TrEMBL record:
It catalyses: UDP-alpha-D-glucose + 2 NAD(+) + H2O = UDP-alpha-D-glucuronate + 2 NADH + 3 H(+). This is UDP-glucose 6-dehydrogenase. InterPro entries: 6-PGluconate_DH-like_C_sf, NAD(P)-bd_dom_sf, UDP-Glc/GDP-Man, UDP-Glc/GDP-Man_DH_C, UDP-Glc/GDP-Man_DH_C_sf, UDP-Glc/GDP-Man_DH_dimer, UDP-Glc/GDP-Man_DH_N, UDPglc_DH_bac. The gene is tuaD. Its EC number is 1.1.1.22. PANTHER family: UDP-GLUCOSE 6-DEHYDROGENASE TUAD. The keyword Nucleus does not apply. Residues 340-443 form the UDP-glucose/GDP-mannose dehydrogenase C-terminal domain. Signal peptide: none annotated. One of its GO terms (biological process) is polysaccharide biosynthetic process. It holds the Pfam family UDPG_MGDP_dh_N. The lineage of its organism: Bacteria, Bacillati, Bacillota, Clostridia, Eubacteriales. The active site is at 287 (nucleophile).
């Protein structure tokens, strides 16, 4: 099929490249000229496992192209994805200006040559499919002075569940595909588009092997509003699982229980499950915080106070502050001390710094006059670019970063920091204080190595 994808970010680029690799003809539409140039050269502007060879492959076959001209992309496309960003506004609601710009452009390019399914893949507030429909009609009216015939197009919702760090694998081997539409033909077109994934009939790329036993991906067909809600509810639930683990961790600390043991113990109950119950400095990233606040905003717009969702966010904010409090306690007075931060990205495997807990902690430390050295194997460059005014020192490896430090804080559990030898770490530090924000190290081993050691809930 001919496919257009608006937005060549984490979602759009990965979706576009995967669909091209599965045999579709994909045109990406992007506004960022640097991204366009890099993608044209076959270089992914983001760090994702398996994306570089995939991109090179589809580019060399000319199965994936990129343009800044929406009309060119819309002209041929039978399916048009909207995968632009939906960042949070100060009031918590999602900012739909990029979605609106994309929808208007799609409307301007609409014609009667063939039917089109316009698919919202971005995470958008409940009811946005209606707005996209209105904006597409506005775009068409701008050009033609009349409403577009309803039979020419339909708007569907197809929320994205990929995780950064494993975006390619998640796109090829998703747990489920959720399709929300108002008309049956939209389901038919989208099932056809996704058929190789649904039936797992493609040859798995060498660099992204198929999970053993996967033969079929479940597809859920539902209405647009429910599809939009599924995305928000899924992220809210995942964020709540982590905040729940952190709530229990904080009680564990007070009563002398070990949250790792406790979460494992409850997770063995098949109704609960062991995954996503890791206590630590809390969740971050581009989605959980913004999606949670957008759902809270929608909920309040309709006169309902979502107590659990608000508590999920509050517990998470407190976990970040907890790291700063521990440092203040260990290093008092903290001003002028040297602290090393291991990990900037919100989780291992990505260079994404959006809403990363490490940045909140660094900001607080800089405000307190702490001298901060940071290490991150892939996100350091992004941090330097995004915060050129921060007086940070960057180090090339975990031990070099800890040289002369009075405390090390583990914020992201990269393999490089998991593997650090604690005796060697203690030897290079000026004062052996270790705040293990991800419960990576064995507390007894850390204390044997001479550390004043703190982790979360143990
Ligand atoms: N990143 C994730 O892990 C993830 C997972 C699931 C869902 N989502 C959702 O997917 C959406 C996109 O997220 P992302 O992380 O890919 O964002 P991103 O910021 O990485 O990418 C968005 C891209 O859209 C481009 N863009 C903006 N306006 C445009 C326009 N009018 N035409 C064409 N391109 C335009 C931007 O330049 C940017 O490259 C968001 O709604 C997000 O919530 C993200």
């Amino acid at each position: 099929m001919n496919v257009a994808v608006f937005g060549a970010g984490y979602v759009g680029l990965v979706t576009g490249a995967v669909l091209a690799d599965l045999g579709h003809q994909v045109m990406l539409v992007e506004v960022d000229q640097d991204k366009i140039a890099q993608i044209r050269d076959g270089i992914p502007p983001i760090y994702e496992a398996g994306l570089a060879p995939l991109l090179r492959r589809v580019r060399d076959r000319a199965a994936l192209e990129i343009t800044d001209q929406p009309l060119v992309a819309v002209a041929e496309a039978e399916v048009v994805f909207i995968a632009v960003g939906t960042p949070p506004l100060p009031n918590g609601d999602a900012d739909l200006r990029y979605v609106k710009a994309a929808a208007l452009a799609i409307g301007r390019g609409l014609d009667g040559h063939h039917r089109r399914v316009i698919v919202n893949k971005a995470t958008v507030p409940i009811g946005s499919a209606n707005l996209v429909e209105v904006w597409i009609a506005d775009g068409y009216r701008e050009v033609h002075g009349e409403e577009p015939p309803a039979a020419w197009y339909t708007v569907a919702s197809n929320p994205e569940f990929l995780r950064e760090g494993s975006a390619v694998a998640d796109t090829l081997y998703p747990d489920r595909i959720v399709l929300g539409a108002d008309v049956p033909w939209a389901f038919t077109v989208l099932r056809e588009l996704y058929r190789p994934i649904i039936e797992q009939s493609f040859e798995a790329p060498l660099e992204t092997p198929r999970p053993r036993g996967l033969t079929q991906v479940p597809v859920m067909e539902t209405g647009r509003v429910s599809a939009e809600m599924i995305k928000y509810a899924a992220n809210a639930f995942l964020a709540t699982k982590i905040s729940f683990a952190n709530e229990i961790a904080n009680i564990c600390e007070r009563v002398g229980a070990d949250v790792g043991e406790v979460m494992y113990g409850i997770g063995l109950d098949s109704r609960i499950g062991t995954r996503f119950l890791q206590a630590g400095v809390g969740w971050g990233g581009s989605c959980f915080g913004k999606d949670l606040s957008a759902l809270v905003f929608t909920s309040r717009e309709y006169g309902y106070v979502p107590e659990i969702l608000e508590a999920t966010a509050a517990v998470n904010a407190r976990q970040r502050q907890r790291v700063v409090s521990l440092l203040q306690e260990e290093l008092k007075p903290i001003h002028g001390r040297r602290v090393t931060i291991w990990g900037l990205a919100f989780k291992p495997g990505t260079d994404d710094l959006r809403d990363a807990p490490a940045l909140t902690v660094i900001e607080a430390l800089l405000r307190l006059g702490v001298r901060v050295t940071a290490y991150d194997p892939v996100a350091a460059e992004n941090c330097r670019r995004q915060h050129p005014d921060w007086p940070l020192t960057y180090a090339p490896d975990p031990l070099a970063a800890a040289e002369g430090a009075e405390a090390v804080v583990l914020m992201t559990e990269w393999p490089q920091v998991r593997e650090v030898d604690l005796e060697r770490l203690a030897a290079v530090m000026r004062r052996p204080v270790l705040i293990d924000g991800r419960n990576v190290f064995d507390p007894a081993a850390a204390r044997r190595a001479g550390f004043a050691y703190h982790s979360i809930g143990r």
